[in-house]
């Protein structure tokens, strides 16, 4: 590839990063950032990516003209525009015309499915999708009671909203001849609108459960208004899950979708709390990936915080016990999906603090000396929070890597390099997917926050203590290498059981490597960068957002 073409491409990437990236955002442009994320443009620097064919990766970097040709073949925002969901089915499909990128980049989900007739999915597909959901999604998003949900399948005659939502979210993981792209879109269109209507017109606990899963589904497809507008509804209803003053959502709607789990008993305080913290997780993930402020304010969170540990770590001694009962604070000694999610929630507390710091950063002005000093104080107090969270994980939540990172990272779990070599590492297939997600997300947060200082063009920040900037550089480099190792080890084997925040974490590391290359004036990118790109392509089979970064 010609050097001139490579430089042109890198300059194009640099222009995008300077406009969209948290690593190089012009000061005083919060509104521009929010509008950029709302338009669906944020987080899409990889329009030049193509599937690896095993050849020299340098040949896969294309000139601007070649990018346009390639984009006309695969699109710039993900899979072919005719499909809302990419099914893994090998079923026959009619050839579909491919639109020019300029025609479909600005088409939303509605525009791409408007010509399709919505179809009610058959009961047998809905039933079969439930076990798929509990294999691929529930382990890292475990707010449902699997025993109750699966038990109700035995007497299921008409799907409830919950089962429709489970089916819609499970489509990318289903292999069935009746689920080609067109059929998948038709079924998904029906389930989406069914949930939208009931959750909006007749809010209830059952509708909120379904809307939460639908929001998760949408967030794995787009980072535009389709997802954060739906999140706004879900977050508003989540505030009604508290028990204070009896303000709770009704169980279900008379004459609506009847849920056998809620027919004879109200959801317990524990069930309501689990649903609330699932919505909290969505709010945290979606806000940081779309540059939107979080919707669940501290005023809403306050009633739920005292019982969070009890909700996820301790089973009540009898069915009538509430989640606010007295429990010991000892950490669990073994893995469980609930314990792993509790650790993820602790990391999401850090994530929200980092995102608040980012939103403050992009409002800094060049002549605001006091505001900059205040921001630096906040940075000092928070910059190592994600790393400290990973260091404090219990033994069952540790992840030993065959990493090439510096000794500071290798020793984060009090292992020496010799001890790590002698330790009996678990087999790859024995590593739990939620544990992988915790680690990769923690490292992505480290890059997210430290890159603000490393790549800042703010006058006061650029002239600040060089040792602090060097420390930020080392933290970013270590975390990027860790993410590369995690991606190379686990994407192929565990990628279908880790949520879309895994993709965002990989993209964050890839974006850091691109920005570093630009800052260094280099046209060469490391092999690790291409590992990350290939990983995003692989994960795109399950979460479309992976192909939009």
From TrEMBL:
<dbReference type="InterPro" id="IPR007219">
    <property type="entry name" value="XnlR_reg_dom"/>
</dbReference>
<dbReference type="GO" id="GO:0003677">
    <property type="term" value="F:DNA binding"/>
</dbReference>
<dbReference type="Pfam" id="PF04082">
    <property type="entry name" value="Fungal_trans"/>
</dbReference>
<dbReference type="GO" id="GO:0008270">
    <property type="term" value="F:zinc ion binding"/>
</dbReference>
<dbReference type="GO" id="GO:0006351">
    <property type="term" value="P:DNA-templated transcription"/>
</dbReference>
<keyword id="KW-0479">Metal-binding</keyword>
<feature type="compositionally biased region" description="Polar residues">
    <location>
        <begin position="69"/>
        <end position="90"/>
    </location>
</feature>
<keyword id="KW-0539">Nucleus</keyword>
<feature type="domain" description="Xylanolytic transcriptional activator regulatory">
    <location>
        <begin position="227"/>
        <end position="310"/>
    </location>
</feature>
<feature type="compositionally biased region" description="Polar residues">
    <location>
        <begin position="53"/>
        <end position="62"/>
    </location>
</feature>
<feature type="region of interest" description="Disordered">
    <location>
        <begin position="35"/>
        <end position="98"/>
    </location>
</feature>
<protein>
    <recommendedName>
        <fullName>Xylanolytic transcriptional activator regulatory domain-containing protein</fullName>
    </recommendedName>
</protein>
<keyword id="KW-0804">Transcription</keyword>
<keyword id="KW-0805">Transcription regulation</keyword>
<dbReference type="GO" id="GO:0000981">
    <property type="term" value="F:DNA-binding transcription factor activity, RNA polymerase II-specific"/>
</dbReference>
<dbReference type="InterPro" id="IPR050815">
    <property type="entry name" value="TF_fung"/>
</dbReference>
<dbReference type="GO" id="GO:0005634">
    <property type="term" value="C:nucleus"/>
</dbReference>
